[in-house]
Design a protein that fits this description.
Blueprint: H1 9-15, H2 19-30, E1 45-47, E2 54-56, E3 62-63, H3 78-90, H4 97-104, H5 108-125
Antiparallel strand pairs: 1-2, 2-3
Helix pairs in contact: 3-5, 4-5
C-alpha cells in the first residue's frame, strides 16, 4: 500500500480523486479493528446518514469517518487536505503554504492553518511517524 512509500503527486491524485474515495479510505483505516461506539462501547452499528459514517445501534450515536482525525471540521475539499497531509509527512522537500495555495487553489492562510494542525498532531505523537498514515488517525 502507500503507507511507507513515497508516491508521486499524480499517483496521490489517482488514489484520492474525490471525497468518497478519501472517506472510504479513512473509514477503513479508522475501523480496521472494528467499530466501537465512543459513547456506550457497543460494537454493533449500521450505516449513518453521511457517507461512510457509522451509527451505533444501541445508543444511536453517529460517528463520521473524519471525527477524531486531523480532517474533522475541514472546511475545504478533503482530497486537497490529503495532499497537504501526505506532503507534510512524507515529501523530501517542505513546500511553503504559498506553494500549496497555488497548487490547490486555496487561500494561503487556509493552507497554513491546516499545515499547523498537522504539525501539532506530529508533535503530539512525539516524533514524525515512519508510516504517514499514523498522523491521519
Amino acid at each position: 500500500m502507500i503507507f511507507n512509500k513515497e508516491i508521486t503527486d499524480t499517483k496521490l491524485n489517482e488514489l484520492f480523486t474525490n471525497k468518497e474515495k478519501c472517506l472510504e479510505f479513512l473509514a477503513e483505516l479508522k475501523w480496521t479493528e472494528g467499530f466501537v461506539c465512543k459513547k456506550c462501547g457497543s460494537n454493533n452499528y449500521c450505516s449513518g446518514k453521511t457517507p461512510f459514517s457509522r451509527r451505533c445501534t444501541k445508543c444511536k450515536t453517529e460517528e463520521s469517518a473524519t471525527s477524531g482525525t486531523i480532517f474533522h471540521h475541514c472546511k475545504f475539499d478533503i482530497s486537497k487536505a490529503f495532499y497537504i497531509a501526505y506532503n507534510v509527512c512524507k515529501a523530501k522537500q517542505d513546500l511553503s503554504t504559498y506553494e500549496y495555495a497555488r497548487r490547490l487553489s486555496l487561500r494561503q492562510m487556509t493552507c497554513w492553518q491546516f499545515k499547523e494542525k498537522i504539525k501539532k498532531a506530529i508533535e503530539a505523537s512525539g516524533e514524525i511517524p515512519e508510516n504517514w498514515i499514523e498522523i491521519l488517525k
